[in-house]
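Hey, resending since the last one bounced:
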Amino acid sequence: MWSAMTLLTGFATEYWHLAVLRFGLGIFEAGCTPFASSIIADYFSEDIRGSALGIYNMGIYIGYSLSYAFGNFITDANINGQGWRWTFFISGIPGFALGALILFTMREPERTLNRGEQAQKSKYEATALQRLTLAAKQFLSPSLLLICIAGSIRNGAGYVWGFNTQNYFNLYYPNENTGLWFSWIPLVGGSIGVVFGGVISDNVVRTRGPVARIWVLIFSLLLAAPFAAGTLFLPPPWAFVSQIPCYLFGEMWVGVTLAVVVELVPSAVRATAVAFYLFIITNIGGNMNLLVSPIEKASSLKTALYLLYPGCYVLGAAVFLLSLFVIKRDIKKVKNRELTDESRQGLLASDNQEGEEDAINYGSTKREGEIS
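The structure tokens again:
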């Protein structure tokens, strides 16, 4: 249905057609990452989970680069005199083949609960509303709240830059062909960065534990911020060149943050928890672009982008830093709760075993009495 909405957009002739189809696309697209993240978390253990999620999220940058390539070059090619429509035709058709391939070849892994989760198994065998409520309760923990705030700020910076990239270069450097550069920079820099971030976080987790992922988030954003500022400060082509390290460091956060989220919630509600996390950061971060217009009116577009692009990188890193002071405690709480549940499960299993043995002994004694 995601691909169908994309394909049908190419046939739109009225504004309301576009509105309905884009609304439908958002609905059917929304489930992809929560389901995928949950399945990946089941397929891969904690020590390589960040890398696996990083590889999955390469799709973001492949798609972003293709949007510039298709939006600029396919539109200019004016195939059959239909201009922009072929951008949506070409983007939508491959999804049908990929959907069929996934349907017939991919199997969801069997979800295994640890002993602590088995002790609370009845909690997870619940209705959709109960499952959503259980997932939402996880976000009342200070660490997940701070991660959501930091993720929203960082996500908002990406939305601001993504929505205003073309406007910025059209305004300040109208003769530059942005499609020529952005058709490959996000693909190369973003793809390497998101995988690199996962690999690094997995390696530090092996030696320093899950908390180390937060340090990867902090340092990656602080390293990316000067290059984001350089894009706005330097003229082309150096402005474009500055985007390469900006993507390389600045996009390390995507897979790493998802790995943190799935590690802080029970496995049975991972998909719901990831959906909840994405809902939060998309609605808060996605609306940050509304701040551009008033700041631009008060000063300039460049000032607005300085504040909301590299500025939010630094602010996001600061909030991630705050989460360090509580995430250790929350991880400890999760582990203690699991240990408590495991102990209860062990006692229940022991009681059940003793009960079965008593029943067997009683039956044997009774039969011996009857024989006598």
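The CA atoms of residues 32 and 275 lie 9 Å apart.

Sorry for the duplicate.
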